[in-house]
């Protein structure tokens, strides 16, 4: 009797459990069924793409700059090496591709995988044809209903426009303000990149330093002139302090390169290098077996200087030639007198903007560096009057001749 009552009481519970199994799925089972795809071969690349794209934030948002930079961060030198500028991480990320393996891309939305295999660069025809094919596949290799092929991220995400001078000067000054806080950790910087400029490097640095000092909210009297030269040099090439980080780390927002300043030779170390090297060379000649090998001690002392140009990645817009600078404001270089500003990297365009703003009388439109002879306004009006009088006289003579 008791057993029959127990079975009667358990029936509603079993019925409830049975109905709930139809109304609600197991979350773990639902996740497995949504990501699993039947295949006969190896799906390791697809699994990587699915695992990296399983975050709910990865959606079709071509106008979201943060998501665009997240896709750029997936590219590294070891997995995306020696690619031309038209296949740079910036261009690939525009069309929703992220890097999941060596020469392997995956769309963050449709999960299609694109394998990129290029011939050797010295095979010019084959290499050019393969690059054109891959560049076309950045759009066509998506799924049929994937929106990335027709709506990529805007060109402004991969280029730096110099049309708005005020905006570029404001961003430059922001980088200067951030780097000023690193004046105790500033490394030794290579200034040789300015040697090909039409203006002497000392004049350029002094002009930029005076301009930057005058726009700072607070005075920094403890910073020396050499430290100011380092700050303006790094800010000129787009280097800024890494956000929300206490260590002296600089980064470029365009190519996503990060550099710890402690890895480079400091100014104090650079001054002591010659003396220490002479002592080590003498020890190397006298006693080779005493203590640590001398050549290792030389490596510890001789650290490389920070080169603001070469520290960027090769496809960074700051050091590459600006291919899309068709702005009317940049058609004439005020320092060089060139008719095409697109023949120079963007940091040179920013340098010209800063110099013209810092000293208009010397580097402006009346600069002797432009090699242009300007006609005074009075002479211009006289020339116009002579031209008008010539037209009038020719019309009168024509009428009298016909009558």
TrEMBL record:
Where in the cell is the protein located? Answer: Nucleus
Q: Which Pfam families match?
A: NuBaID_C (PF08600), zf-C3HC (PF07967)
Q: Keywords assigned by UniProt?
A: Metal-binding, Nucleus, Zinc, Zinc-finger
Q: Where is this region: Disordered?
A: 24-59
Enumerate the spans annotated as C3HC-type domain: 62-188
GO molecular function terms attached to this record = zinc ion binding
Q: What are the NuBaID C-terminal domain coordinates in residue numbering? A: 232-357
GO terms for cellular component: nucleus
Q: What is its main location?
A: nucleus
Protein name per UniProt: NIPA-like protein
């Amino acid at each position: 009797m008791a057993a029959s009552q127990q079975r009667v009481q358990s029936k509603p519970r079993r019925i409830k459990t049975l109905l709930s199994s139809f109304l609600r799925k197991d979350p773990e089972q639902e996740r497995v069924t949504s990501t699993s795809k039947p295949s006969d071969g190896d799906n390791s690349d697809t699994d990587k793409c699915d695992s990296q794209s399983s975050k709910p934030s990865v959606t079709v948002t071509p106008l979201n700059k943060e998501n665009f930079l997240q896709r750029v961060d997936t590219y590294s030198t070891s997995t995306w090496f020696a690619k031309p500028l038209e296949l740079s991480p910036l261009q690939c990320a525009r069309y929703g591709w992220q890097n999941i393996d060596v020469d392997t891309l995956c769309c963050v939305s449709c999960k299609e995988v694109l394998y990129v295999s290029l011939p050797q660069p010295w095979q010019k025809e084959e290499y050019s044809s393969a690059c054109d094919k891959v560049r076309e596949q950045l759009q066509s290799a998506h799924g049929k209903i994937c929106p990335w092929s027709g709506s990529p991220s805007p060109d402004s995400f991969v280029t730096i426009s110099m049309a708005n001078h005020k905006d570029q000067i404001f961003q430059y000054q922001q980088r200067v303000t951030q780097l000023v806080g690193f004046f105790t950790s500033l490394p030794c910087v290579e200034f040789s990149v300015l040697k090909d400029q039409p203006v002497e490097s000392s004049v350029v640095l002094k002009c930029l330093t005076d301009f930057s000092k005058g726009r700072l909210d607070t005075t920094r009297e403890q910073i020396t002139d050499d430290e100011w030269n380092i700050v303006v040099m790094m800010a000129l090439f787009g280097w800024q302090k890494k956000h929300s980080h206490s260590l002296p780390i600089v980064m470029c927002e365009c190519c996503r390169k990060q550099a710890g300043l402690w890895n480079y030779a400091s100014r104090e170390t650079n001054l002591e290098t010659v003396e220490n090297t002479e002592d080590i060379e003498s020890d190397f000649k006298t006693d080779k077996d005493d203590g640590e090998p001398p050549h290792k001690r030389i490596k510890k002392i001789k650290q490389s200087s920070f080169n603001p140009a070469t520290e960027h990645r090769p496809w960074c817009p700051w050091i590459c030639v600006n291919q899309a600078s068709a702005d009317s404001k940049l058609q004439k270089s005020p320092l060089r007198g060139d008719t095409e500003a697109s023949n120079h990297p963007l940091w040179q365009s920013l340098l010209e903007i800063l110099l013209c703003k810092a000293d208009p009388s010397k580097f402006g439109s009346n600069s002797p560096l432009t090699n242009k002879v300007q006609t005074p306004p009075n002479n211009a009006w006289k020339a116009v009057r002579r031209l008008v009088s010539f037209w009038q006289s020719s019309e009168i003579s024509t009428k009298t001749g016909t009558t």
